[in-house]
Amino acid sequence: MSHTIFSPSHDEGAGELHPAHAGISDLKLHLLITAKRLATPWQVAFERSMRLAKMPLPDGVLLDPACGSGIQLAAHMLTLKRSGIGVELEPEVGRAAAANLWRVATYEKSENPSWLENSRVLIGDGCQSAEVCSLIAIEQVALLQLDPARPQNSRTHGIEEMSPQLGEVFTAWKSHLRQTDRGPAILLDLSPRLLGEQRAQVESIVEEHWPSIGKTWEWTSRGGGRIDRLSLWLGAASTPGIGMRYVRIPPRWDEAAIIVESSQNEENWSAENQHSISPRSPRRGEYLTIVDSALVSSGLVAEWLKQNLDARDRQNWLAVEGRRPMIYHSQPLSSVALESRLLFQTSGQIVALCQSPLDMENIEEYVEICYDNNLTHITVRAPLDDAVQPQLQSAFHRMLAGGGSGGSGFIVSTPSQVGSLYAENKTKKATKTCN
Question: Can you spell out the DSSP letters for 211-246?
Answer without folding.
Answer: TT--EEEEEEE-STT---EEEEEEETTSPTT--EEE
